[in-house]
Design brief:
binds zinc ion, 3-stranded antiparallel beta sheet, 3-stranded mixed beta sheet, 20% strand, 168 residues, elongated, 2 domains, alpha+beta
Length: 168
Amino acid sequence: MICPYCGADNDRVIDSRATDAGRGVRRRRVCEACEKRFTTYERVDQPNRLVVVKRDGRRDPFNTSKMMASITAACGKLPIPEAVKEQLVEEIEEELSREFEKEVESAMIGQRVLAKLRDINKVAYIRFAAEHLRIESIDQLRKELEDLESRPTNVRDQQPLFDPAGAR
Ligand SMILES: [Zn+2]
């Protein structure tokens, strides 16, 4: 390790201890040239990598590009800026890594996406819900639409649910 004081590359570790509940190591070092002390930290690259538990019990590493792909599919050609989708993915990733330590069920991720999509674009929401909630009948879809219409939203630039101009 290069000494931050004199630039010599000649140090000796005088103390090592675990930090961050064993996820890191803190090393006290002394420079052999100038005898000043400094500290380095070592930790695992990408700590707390989440694993997604799917409906059938299979496990996959959490992957933001997969989440982005399913959101993009639901958004289709709707006028939803790329930046809005990216922010949605980022927010969910941040929430999940804060709230879950090792594993998270795919259904939970879907719920998070839905909760946010509902405030972004209702058509995208319904498309994602149809895929995610496995809507298999018109009745089920109708019920979901009624729920959607009855719930208040705190939306700024909300798309109308059935926009004649957008229905091409
Ligand atoms: Zn030094």
